[in-house]
Amino acid sequence: MKIMFEELIEWLYKEDLKHMTTKNGLINATQDFALLEEIICEKCTPKQIYHIAKLGLKSTNINKLAQAIIKSKDPLYNYLFAKNIDKADIKAHEQVVIDSKDPEYNYYFASDIIGADIKAHGQVVIESKNPKYNYYFARNVVGADIKAHGQVVIESKNPEYNYYFARDVVGADIKAHGQVVFESKNPTFIFWFKKTIKSDTFQFPEESVSGNAISDDVDLAEKETASNHSAEHLKLKEIKENIHTLEIIG
Q1: Can you name the residues that pair with 172 across neighbouring β-strands?
Q2: Containing H/E element for 3?
Q3: What is the pLDDT of residue 90?
Q4: Partners of 248 in the beta sheet?
Q5: Is the pLDDT of residue 15 over 90?
Q6: CA atoms of 117 and 92, how far apart (whole Å)
Q7: How buried is 75 (Cβ within 10 angstroms: 0-12 exposed, 13-18 middle, 19+ buried)?
Q8: What is the pLDDT of residue 249?
Q9: Cystine design at 162: which of 54, 99, 175, 180 (Cβ 3.0–4.6 Å)?
């Protein structure tokens, strides 16, 4: 049997509906809601369980739904549950995210949730060697280990994130990041490093950029990159919160 997820949500909202059919027969809305929750926790995906919890119905056992989310070990929905569900067990959901070793959701957890273990999430991001999320972590998380995250970005040899790190992170090693950008021979980020970052410790040789030959392309690339970075958080949130018609397979 298939129960459409949107139909389940509609049923949960209707107080006058007395029953629904499942593989186990008839579930009475007033007497067997706990049994329905057992089926939800067993058959629903983490995404579905999260959205049911987010409805905030008085009859919902949030602890039971939370345990299903924790058991799933899904870093995305443990992060969202901790962020958006009232009285969520922050430490329990946090441990799932830390254990996942996922740099993206460790960054979001540390960035968005009050009381997060900044050191533990930061260590996961550092060990991931991911230049993008080491840059984000150092830029946006209060208490981040700037030197350690910066070293990951430097060792990545990625000219884009070395440029952003030097430009945006207070306490960045401008000389080391500049050297990576220079050695990359990437004209876009050499141009913008020279144009936007002033430093007494590092200067590019004049011949490192050919000037007008790349200025138009570089200007366009900078605008596109800035737009991508500013929209990324909103886009991710929109994708995560978007709910489609899903199925519970019985």
Answers
A1: none
A2: strand 2-4
A3: 97
A4: 3
A5: no
A6: 12
A7: buried
A8: 34
A9: 180
Are 111 and 103 in contact by the 8 Å Cβ rule? The answer is: no
What does the pLDDT look like over 180-232, one tens digit per residue?
999 999 999 999 999 998 877 777 776 555 544 344 444 444 444 544 555 55
Question: From residue 21, how far is each of 1, 31, 52, 248, 249 by CA, in Å?
Answer: 9, 14, 19, 13, 13
The whole-angstrom separation of Cα 159 and Cα 118 is 27
Amino acid at 142: V
For 139, other C-beta atoms within 10 Å of its C-beta total 18
Q: Which two tokens stand for residue 86?
A: 């009232």
Per-residue pLDDT band for 33 (boundaries 50, 70, 90) equals low
Helix or strand run (H / E) with residue 142: none
> What's the Cα-to-Cα distance from 216 to each of 89, 103, 187, 203, rounded to whole Å?
51, 34, 12, 23
Q: Are 163 and 181 in contact (CB under 8 A)?
A: yes
Instruction: Report the alpha-carbon distance of residue 172 to residue 151 in Å, rounded.
Output: 10
